[in-house]
Amino acid sequence: MYFNAAHPGPYNAAVKLKGKHIKGSPFEISVLQKLRYKAMHKPVLTFGSEGSADGQLSSPFAVCTNDRGDFLVADSRNHRIQVFDSRGRFLFKFGTKGPGRGQLNTPCGLAIDLARGRILVADAGNNRIQIFDSKGSPVSAVGTKGSEEGQFDRPWSVAVDEVGNFAVADFDNHRIQVFNSEGVFLRKFGSAADGAGDGKLKRPISVAILSSGHFVVAENGGSRMQIFDGLGNCVRLIGIGQVKKPWHLCVDDDDRILVCDYSNNRIQVFDQNGGNLCSFGVGVLSHPTGICVDKDGRVVVTVFGNHRVEVFDKT
């Protein structure tokens, strides 16, 4: 039996034998979008150049998109966030170097709380997560330097779930910390890894959240990814021997994992079971650091080595 779906998404299917439903029929099946990443050979849009003027970048470390399709870029060594429209045109910026309210010191991670329209910034040099409104005005901050619960030692990445809870890759504390939408500490998992054991972490540099609520963590020091369940138990190891010094990662709408394979100068795509689906960007990317998928399915990558942003599409 063959089933041809016009579009990806959930479908109800019924199977009958001699006019009667077989066991379990009717049932729901999910049709996934065709894997597009194999066709992403060259960027369709490039913006940014080295410098400190509006629209210029210095070591961009992360990127995310809002519900309008704008790009937010962590302009790390300019100690600010810059916002561009979907065509790469500069819109506005926020943040200046310093430890004060709304100031930044080497911002390394970004996430959008879509439910509240808030922008979360991993303010690594100030050892805190700062929360801004959609226009870049400071709202609150979470964390101080240290190793206690709710403290950080270079928070490198932040990810937000659908209800506003957020997870932080606490880089030099070798752990992930989870907070509720108000910034109240919920739990932590991971510990310093001396070897290759699962459940331990060696400089976790990025965290993303699957639709199941599981966490995907990229270990810069361990050159691998791990998937943890919602309570922080290791479920699976991914990418061992396939990635080298990974940086940020993201997940798409079909829970495929896209990771910046930093030292191999490419993007790699895995399924959540650890299957390596494809890679792209070889010969184009020079040390990719940040990644997201926009509302149109384009892959947006910050390129550390070239101080710019590259946008890939299947065409």
What is the gist of this entry?
The chain has no helices and 28 strands. The protein has about 325 residues and is mainly beta. The chain folds into two domains: about 1-30, no CATH class; about 35-310, TolB, C-terminal domain (Neuraminidase), CATH 2.120.10.30.
Order of helices and strands: EEEEEEEEEEEEEEEEEEEEEEEEEEEE
General form: globular
Category by helix and strand content: mainly beta
CATH top level assignment of the largest domain: Mainly Beta
Straight-line distance between termini: 32 Å
How many structural domains are formed by the residues?
Answer: 2
DSSP strand (E) fraction?
A: 35-45%
Poorly predicted runs are none
Please report the total strand number as a whole number: 28
Helix content: under 10%
- Give the oligomer, counting copies of the same chain as homo and different chains as hetero: single chain
Annotation field: number of helices: 0
Report mean pLDDT, rounded to a whole number: 91
Whole-angstrom Rg: 20 Å
> Tell me about the biggest sheet?
4 strands, antiparallel
Kindly report the spatial arrangement of strands forming the biggest sheet: 5-28-27-26
CATH topology of the largest domain: Neuraminidase
CATH architecture of the largest domain: 6 Propeller
Name the CATH superfamily classification of the largest domain.
TolB, C-terminal domain
